[in-house]
Every structure is written in C-alpha cells, then in structure tokens.
C-alpha cells in the first residue's frame, strides 16, 4: 500500500542484510537480493500506507561511515515522521546510533525503528515476519527517537548488542 501524501504513511528504507538474502544453488553463497519488507507488509494486509525505498543492498559488515551518513540523510529528508529501516543485524546498533545523533542534531521529531532478521525472509523458518510486524507497530506507537526492534523487544541503540553465541539481541548498560 502506498499513499505518499498521507500523514500516516510509514517510510521504509532498506539497506540489505540477512532479511533480503537469497540462496541460488547448493554451491553458491548467500547474496543480498530484492527488498522483502514490502511483500511481507502486503501479505500481512497492513492497514496503513507505506512507501519502500531501497538505499543499498549490502551485508551490514560492508557498510561504511558514508553509507551510515546517507541513511541518516535520507531519514532526515523524508517528509514522513514514522520510519522503518531494514538492516543487517551485525552493525544495526551502530547505524542506529548514527541516526539517533543525526535526529538530535537536526532536532527532528521522527520515530525511526531499525529491524532485521537472523534468517532470510525467503526461508520458511524465519523471524523476519514477526520482526517486521513488531517494528511496524513500534514505529507507529513509540515517541520520536531511534530504536532497534528485535526478538520481541525494543532497545535504545546505545544500550544493545547482538549476542552472536545466542543469536539474539540483548540490553547492555553501556554502549557496545
């Protein structure tokens, strides 16, 4: 659903990551493919307007400071106050911290929710559908700021880390 003029429109920016990865055959590695969030939202029958824009198709370990600045710039430039960013999980909190600082510096009253998945959205056993739904709810209800929404929890990007051993996000008392 896309209604760019509606004040309820949720802007979605995609950056790549596991959520969009696809597997071509038994001998190839995963590659970041087409963004999946629009399909997930349409198949879920969401009742709010949204607009999807692909900013890049990268694994989050390949993101640069320039990429993070581009993400922050596009968020600040969108007229929409509610934003979801799909992002790879390895550096999601780092990018969310850059965006949080940009929102403060610009005095921008936007709610930005970063989300990803630990298994590709194309897989039958994936957390992508749940995480996207959770992020959509969070983006529409949280106050302005930048957040990470993973594993059924909302985190301050300055106080979260990905536990690679447990394959989930967890709160921390100081920035990671």
Automatic annotation (TrEMBL):
<dbReference type="InterPro" id="IPR006034">
    <property type="entry name" value="Asparaginase/glutaminase-like"/>
</dbReference>
<protein>
    <submittedName>
        <fullName>Asparaginase</fullName>
    </submittedName>
</protein>
<dbReference type="InterPro" id="IPR037152">
    <property type="entry name" value="L-asparaginase_N_sf"/>
</dbReference>
<dbReference type="Pfam" id="PF00710">
    <property type="entry name" value="Asparaginase"/>
</dbReference>
<feature type="binding site">
    <location>
        <begin position="89"/>
        <end position="90"/>
    </location>
    <ligand>
        <name>substrate</name>
    </ligand>
</feature>
<dbReference type="GO" id="GO:0004067">
    <property type="term" value="F:asparaginase activity"/>
</dbReference>
<dbReference type="InterPro" id="IPR027474">
    <property type="entry name" value="L-asparaginase_N"/>
</dbReference>
<feature type="active site" description="O-isoaspartyl threonine intermediate">
    <location>
        <position position="18"/>
    </location>
</feature>
<feature type="binding site">
    <location>
        <position position="60"/>
    </location>
    <ligand>
        <name>substrate</name>
    </ligand>
</feature>
<feature type="domain" description="L-asparaginase N-terminal">
    <location>
        <begin position="10"/>
        <end position="165"/>
    </location>
</feature>
<dbReference type="InterPro" id="IPR036152">
    <property type="entry name" value="Asp/glu_Ase-like_sf"/>
</dbReference>
């Amino acid at each position: 659903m896309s209604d760019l003029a509606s004040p309820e429109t949720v802007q979605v920016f995609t950056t790549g990551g596991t959520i969009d990865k696809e597997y071509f055959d038994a001998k190839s590695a995963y590659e970041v493919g087409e963004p999946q969030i629009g399909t997930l939202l349409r198949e879920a029958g969401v009742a709010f307007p949204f607009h999807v824009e692909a900013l890049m198709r990268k694994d989050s370990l390949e993101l640069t400071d320039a990429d993070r600045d581009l993400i922050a710039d596009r968020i600040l430039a969108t007229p929409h106050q509610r934003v979801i960013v799909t992002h790879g999980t390895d550096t999601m909190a780092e990018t969310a911290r850059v965006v949080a600082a940009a929102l403060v510096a610009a005095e921008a009253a936007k709610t930005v929710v970063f989300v990803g998945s630990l298994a590709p959205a194309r897989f039958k056993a994936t957390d992508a559908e749940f995480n996207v739904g959770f992020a959509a709810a969070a983006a529409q209800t949280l106050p302005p700021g930048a957040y990470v929404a993973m594993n059924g929890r909302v985190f301050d990007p300055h106080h979260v880390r990905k536990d690679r051993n447990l394959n989930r996000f967890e709160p921390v008392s100081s920035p990671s």
